[in-house]
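In the previous lecture we treated proteins in isolation. Real proteins rarely work alone, and many bind small molecules. This record shows how such a complex is specified: first the sequence, then the SMILES for pyridoxal-5'-phosphate.
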Amino acid sequence: MRQATVYIDHQALQYNLNRVKQLAPQAKIVSMVKANAYGHGVADCLGGLSATDAFGVACLEEALEIRELGYHQPITLIEGVFSEDEMQVAVDQNIEVVVHHQQQVDWLRTHKNAYVGKNLKVWVKLNSGMNRLGFKVPEIIEVINSLKAEGFTCVLAMHFANADAEQHPLNEQQKQQFLQVKEACAPVLASCCNSAALFKWPELNFDFVRPGIMLYGASPFADKSVKELDLKPVMTFEAEIIALNTIQAGESVGYGSHFVADQAMQLAIVSIGYGDGYPRAFPKQNYVAMDGQLTRVIGRVAMDMIAIDVSGLNASLGTKVELWGNTRLVDDVAEANGTIGYELLCRLSNRPQRKQI
Ligand SMILES: Cc1ncc(COP(=O)(O)O)c(C=O)c1O
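The predicted 3D structure, ligand included, written as tokens:
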């Protein structure tokens, strides 16, 4: 059997969740498990996140999967419902909604008695300059105050566009608008921190924090590694060597024959490729880890195979190779690929086997 495997480490998930608790001891934690737990597999992750206060997902289908798996914590739909029918299902399943436009507020009002009766919170989204979703100031003040007057419990919610940037003028603008609305609607529950904001602005933790990437042990910052942030990679993506070749100077490797050896070398062929979600294009030199040691990926990534340089290394058929994990960090693979760890994690295909450890 082909041995390409994604391992999900529950202790690492628990450790990272605990890091969130250390950073935001007073806040409730809404663990973001959208996009199949950032590609980790929601069914494989929820056990490791059982100490969370709530979950955040992008759509009703994702929320229902959590309910079907038997988890009863509150769930927030971060884009709200997409139609009025969904509102009924959400209420029935104790699923909370974001409202970011007037039609969603109208749908919510239609279900007011059930929603308020079940003590569900409504998350009202502020558009403070990201210009994706939400009401602008002063409209949001009106929306929150009228919902409160009708008996709804509101959470003022916002998302930073540049929480990962060292300095960005929009950060201050977004903070100021958030604080202004919070004051104008007081008392109101509040939530604006994703992973990067959690690390940077402890004073903005408020009632609910919404960590995503840090739970999975990848970094929200381009210039800070998970080791510096004291997070543990949850996913180890591994495959094995299925062939060994010696090539001479002048011989090429793989599609396009782009790599030409300048001296004799030992190659190993590993059964992993873009069909598994391993990226194909590497503007920078990419590496894998073998026995805790980094070694080069050689030539083009194919659908099912890559070649690696094992000159001087102890490689044999069946030797395990880490595509990303504790030694070769997903953030470093992403950097070589010109993207971010989030994308590589989410983009895995369903071909690799999945195992919880
Ligand atoms: C509204 C919202 N909150 C929180 C998060 C979590 O962000 P991160 O994974 O950077 O912690 C996201 C992710 O996209 C989001 O859209």
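Summary for your notes: The pocket of pyridoxal-5'-phosphate is lined by residues 32, 78, 159, 194-196, 210-214, 220 (CB under 6 Å). The chain is about 30% helix and 25% strand.
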